[in-house]
């Protein structure tokens, strides 16, 4: 669906993006996200930090078409199509006027060029640009010919429309060349983009009713089995004040709810898919039977929209795990289909005594442009511009409040597609478990920075020996920005009080 894209498909996509854009704009006026008041999730540093320009601000700026200095988003594409239709209609009207043979021939030629452009799939690429240049030159030649006042006025009007379209396209082209991150929107001409470049539709997506993700999921016990209910569904999720994403979630939060059980528990998850697309759940790192591994096309048929699938397995081994989608995972996981899964040991041992503070932190990335959400990927044009810990970018990240002398465990989970060297200020920590498996005391290493790669889990522990507000943050420093403005992203505060 790249090169052979027909004009119909493009129109449909453009319309969808337009609708999505409108819905998003409306959505931001709707009261959202009732805070649930879970302890330990009150951002304590918000007051001291200035929120950065948000995607919503950009969205407002791009609502007005014809400015020529806006990006070619879905709106621009729509605009372009409308303008072309108008030009075509104008041409038809002009053809009915009196004119010389020469002028009529030139007009007919231009008309067929227009047809060619409109049927060529509207690729905003160099080919289209050069065709427009050609049309413009032809128009200039025609303007030099003799014609009626009426015809000249119509011709001038058409010429102005052409200029407007070209300045719009020129902007898109310049951006794409200047910075890969400028390739968002309707760049469908290339081979590199594909579906990855399309915005996630926010049409009809309701605002989230919860504001904190990763909270423990309640269960019922049926014949000794712990039964959990999960539903995948899209919501509009706040990653930062004023910055909303269209997220695909488990039970309406990012991350989805934490499943926390004890080693050896029999666990059943009744999973319903209320997404617009098929999906599965993979239980990352847990020793499940093969048929429960949640891999589309390998261990099961994907769960279609509206369908339910029952996952059941014995929870083992103990450790820090997660669950996430395994269908179109480069898109679905990036936009929120992930959650923590903690299995506590059946018997406490010297390496697994419960810490005073136990916090799970899932690290991920987002791409938000003009108020629209795109799946973030490590490729040109799809790079993230927002970075989140448990679905929130600093200063909306949670503050970890601890008392002097308490032992703190942070369970770090890399669920995005980028690595994050996480650095703690003020105190060193020990790596007590890797990918869920305990590190023996003799083998533990002491660090103050630890790289968390995609898919990895590290349990780190430290004793809060120094009072004060200490930062814990990614040391790829672009990852501590919100759309390029620091501070933001993968930063949280550890607040140690006496
Ligand atoms: Cu990072």
Helix-residue proportion: 10-25%
Bound molecules: copper (II) ion
Quaternary state, please?
single chain
From the helix content, strand content and strand pairing, which structural class follows? alpha+beta
Number of strand elements? 22
The number of helical elements comes to 7
Spatial shape: elongated
Unreliable segments (pLDDT under 50, ≥5 consecutive)?
1-15, 19-75, 170-193
What is the overall pLDDT average? Answer: 80
Number of domains: 3
- Tell me the β content: 25-35%
Order of helices and strands: HHHHHHEEEEEEEEHEEEEEEEEEEEEEE
Instruction: Round the Cα radius of gyration to an integer and report it.
Output: 27 Å
The end-to-end distance, rounded to whole angstroms, is 61 Å
The main sheet comes to: 8 strands, mixed
């Amino acid at each position: 669906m790249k090169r052979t894209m027909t004009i119909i498909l493009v129109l449909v996509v453009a319309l969808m993006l337009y609708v999505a854009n409108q819905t998003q704009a409306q959505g931001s006026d709707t009261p959202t996200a009732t805070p649930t008041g879970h302890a330990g999730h009150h951002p304590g540093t918000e007051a001291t930090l200035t929120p950065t320009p948000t995607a919503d601000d950009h969205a407002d700026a791009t609502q007005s078409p014809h400015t020529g200095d806006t990006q070619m988003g879905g709106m621009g594409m729509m605009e372009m199509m409308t303008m072309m239709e108008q030009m075509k209609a104008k041409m038809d009207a002009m053809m009915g006027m009196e004119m010389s043979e020469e002028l009529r021939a030139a007009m007919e030629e231009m008309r067929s060029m227009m047809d060619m452009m409109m049927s060529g799939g509207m690729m905003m690429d160099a080919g289209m640009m050069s065709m427009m240049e050609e049309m413009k030159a032809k128009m200039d030649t025609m303007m030099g010919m003799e014609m009626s006042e009426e015809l000249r006025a119509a011709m001038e009007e058409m010429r102005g429309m052409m200029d407007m379209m070209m300045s719009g396209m020129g902007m898109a082209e310049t951006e794409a060349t200047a910075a890969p991150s400028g390739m968002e929107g309707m760049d469908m001409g290339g081979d590199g983009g594909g579906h990855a470049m399309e915005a996630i539709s926010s049409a009809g997506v309701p605002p989230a009713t919860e504001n904190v993700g990763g909270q423990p999921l309640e269960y019922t016990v049926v014949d000794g089995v712990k039964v959990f209910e999960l539903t995948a569904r899209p919501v509009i999720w706040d990653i930062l004040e004023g910055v909303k994403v269209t997220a695909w979630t488990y039970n309406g939060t990012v991350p989805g709810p934490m499943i926390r059980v004890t080693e050896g528990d029999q666990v059943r998850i009744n999973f319903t898919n209320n997404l617009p697309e098929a999906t599965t759940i993979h239980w990352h790192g847990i020793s499940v039977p093969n048929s429960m591994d949640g891999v589309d096309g390998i261990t099961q048929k994907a769960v279609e929209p509206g369908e339910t699938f029952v996952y059941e397995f014995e929870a083992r081994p103990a450790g820090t795990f997660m669950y996430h989608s395994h269908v179109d995972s480069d898109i679905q996981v990036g936009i929120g289909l992930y959650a923590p899964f903690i299995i506590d040991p059946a018997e406490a041992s010297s390496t697994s005594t419960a810490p005073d503070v136990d916090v799970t932190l899932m690290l991920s990335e987002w791409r938000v442009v003009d108020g629209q959400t795109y799946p973030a990927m490590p490729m040109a044009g799809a790079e993230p511009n927002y970075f989140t810990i448990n679905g929130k970018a600093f200063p909306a990240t949670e503050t970890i409040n601890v008392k002097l002398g308490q032992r703190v465990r942070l369970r770090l989970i890399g669920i995005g597609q980028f690595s994050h060297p996480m650095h703690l200020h003020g105190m060193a920590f020990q790596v007590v478990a890797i990918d869920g498996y305990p590190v023996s005391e003799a083998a533990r290493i002491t660090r103050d920075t630890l790289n968390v790669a995609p898919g990895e889990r590290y349990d780190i522990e430290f004793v809060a020996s120094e009072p004060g507000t200490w930062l814990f943050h990614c040391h790829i420093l672009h990852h501590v920005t919100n759309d390029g403005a620091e501070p933001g992203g993968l930063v949280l505060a550890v607040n140690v009080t006496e």
